[in-house]
Amino acid sequence: MTIRSRKTLVVLSLCLFGAAALALGSVALIGSRVSSEIQRYQALLIERDDVSVVQFDYNRNFWGGELRYRLLWRPERGEGPLAQWMRTLEMSEERLTLTGIIDIRHGPWLGEMAFGLARADLEIAVPAMLREALPQYPGQAPLITLTGTLGFSGALRARLDVQDYDGRVADGANVANFELFGVGAEVVVNRALDQLDLRMEVPLMALDAPGEGNASLEALLMAGTLNRAQAGWSMSADIEMGLLEVNENTQDDAVIPLFAMDQLSLQATLSQRESEPLLSDSRMTLEAVRLNLPSASLELALRDYVGSSRVGLLDDTVENTGTLRVGSLELNQERLGGIALESSLRGISAQTYMALEGLWSLETDLDNFDETLVEALRALAQEQIVLSVDRFVLSLPDEDDVVASLSLEYTGSAQVNVDSLESITNAIQVEGSVDASIKALERTFASEALSQEQQETLQGLLDSVQTLPYVTIDDDRLRSSVQASAQQVLINGEPVEAANALIAATTNRHAPDTTVTEPTPSPATMPEPAPVAPGSVSKTLAPEPAALCPDFSLSGTSLQYTSDALYTPQSLKVFAGGSVDIGQCPSLPGSGFVTQAPDYTLALTDNGNRRALEVRLASECDSVLLINDPLAAWHFDDDSNGSMDALIRFDAAAEGTYDIWIGSYNSDGCNASVTLETF
């Protein structure tokens, strides 16, 4: 052997010896640190008032060790959320026993990338509250056993097994009997605790209260994943259920089915990020739901249910959409029809939506709940919200559908006074329609599934609906449409006098058929003019008109803008029209129909640079515009904005109060929007 070979062999031997020494040193270092950590943890346990250490032994060797422990925990003395939760469940007098063996290896080992592995068994005694509901509880082996493994660089895996009692729980008279057979659950959590996977399977769950009733659940499967990060969290869940039944027991032990649900499937995802509302997407399918009402001899059934819902962000606003479909609606096993529904809610800003969500969180200060709710509603009143039922269809057995739609639009703004009912209602517009086959409805009402009394009641209701003056009967079809705003209510284009009179009363306006003309007051009895802001011109209050005419002494919805604020156009939804004929008022220009009080009372301020003010309309009919300016002068326009829409422009607009009427050339009226802008 050459000298070089011997040197190489010596170097290799030294390397191997060094590597072995390094490995053994790391094992010894890890073992020492584990021992010190266990001693420190034991000292912390001993100092706690809520834990009694019955056994805590660590038998260490060079390569590992075995930790045996037995602890008694008294929740009534403990702190933290778990102890508080257990006290809420009235378990404070229970002593929970925690026993186990942890086999610790100091490593490293071939084929292992981790430096340690722990296994634990946890046994929990059944609380007294639960034992009272379990007759003849044997009190031998614990009912719940949790086994788990922990890899220091891997995941925590736990499996929960709940076994049946092998007949040790007997049925008792007038005592509830609760049984769980073969329930299995698996929880997986990664080391960083930012991901959790759960899976639970329940073949059968039954609850029986002798003399009262019973409920059973078959084939329940739940799976879910939770992910957390600094910016927020996300969760997905899947639920599958075979059959849920609820029955009632009569005095002669006869079983009456009350409720049943077959084959439920639910998929849902939830996510929340910093400065964003809670977003969700879900879908649920259901084979059948059956509801029995024995006292009324009725059995209702929904079949082939499919529903979906989504809450998402559209720019900076929240959009909530939903769909629903029911294949068939059955009464006493006779098909009445199917249902389809599509709806949406949009226009609420993300910030307002998050404020509303916060009201129902666990961290809400209940002492200030009312104040917080009012503030959230004030923010909501400034949103522009649209709630619509885009499509509602009831499919009757002979394929003649009942079709309906509804749209509710709320045009809130910073100028809305939430303390004024008039201010709120002025921002609301409603549109809806319904179309149905009369013969199809009559055939449905004559169904053999209904009793004679029920048939007569429903037929009488249909007959009374057909006699209403606002319902149109055309080619055996019943049709009706509604338009409602703060100005008036129209059904099939005809004003509803009772509703309009109520609107007039609540908005301090005079309904056409109830107005009493007051005598003209003498100068001595005329009211003093209201004070106005500096730089504005006050209007002299006109005497009460002899005939019903637009009156600027009345107030419309209050608007207040600076000239700079209106440099960005401001648009508002409104109903164009009214019952006051301008042509019958000799002192006023133009012709058309408006309300007696102005629709809006605008206070224009800070127009020192003498910008022009423009008021323009966009409407669904031939609209007109009537304005009384700060100098009490009248201005009228019909078609200056094109397409039969009105426009009035005030050059070098004066500061002060502008009373604005939005009307229609004909008496029908229509939906419109008014835009205010300075130039």
Describe this structure in words.
The structure is a single chain. It contains nine helices and 34 strands. Helix 4 (350-359) runs antiparallel to helix 5 and helix 7 (438-445) runs antiparallel to helix 8 (452-466). By secondary structure, it is of the alpha+beta class. The chain has a 20-stranded antiparallel sheet that branches. Among the domains are: 23-153, no CATH class; 311-360 and 368-484, no CATH class; 537-678, Sandwich (Jelly Rolls), CATH 2.60.120. Helices cover 17% and strands 46% of the residues.
Helix count?
A: 9
Query: What structural class do you assign from the helix and strand content?
Result: alpha+beta
Shape, per Cα inertia axes: extended
State the oligomer: single chain
Query: How many β-strand stretches?
Result: 34
Helical proportion, percent range:
10-25%
Q: Which parts are unreliable, with pLDDT below 50 for 5 consecutive residues or more?
A: 109-118, 135-143, 164-175, 509-538, 540-546
Can you give the mean pLDDT? 76
Report the end-to-end length measured between terminal Cα atoms: 104 Å
Approximately how much beta-strand content do the residues carry? over 45%
Q: Radius of gyration, rounded?
A: 38 Å
Instruction: Describe the sheet with the most strands.
Output: 20 strands, antiparallel
Per-chain topology:
Blueprint (H helix, E strand, L loop, with lengths): L2 H45 L3 E10 L3 E10 L7 H8 L7 E10 L11 E8 L3 H4 L12 E8 L3 E8 L14 E5 L1 E8 L4 E15 L3 E17 L2 E18 L5 E19 L5 E15 L4 E17 L2 E15 L2 E16 H10 L9 H13 L2 E12 L5 E11 L9 H5 L2 E10 H8 L6 H15 L5 E3 L2 E8 L4 E3 L2 E2 L1 H10 L50 E6 L7 E7 L3 E2 L11 E2 L5 E6 L7 E7 L3 E6 L5 E4 L9 E4 L5 E9 L5 E9 L1
Parallel strand pairs: 24-28
Antiparallel strand pairs: 1-2, 2-3, 4-5, 5-6, 6-8, 7-9, 8-9, 9-10, 10-11, 11-12, 12-13, 13-14, 14-15, 15-16, 16-17, 17-18, 18-19, 19-21, 20-21, 21-22, 22-23, 25-34, 26-27, 28-33, 29-32, 29-34, 30-31, 30-33
Helix pairs in contact: 4-5, 7-8
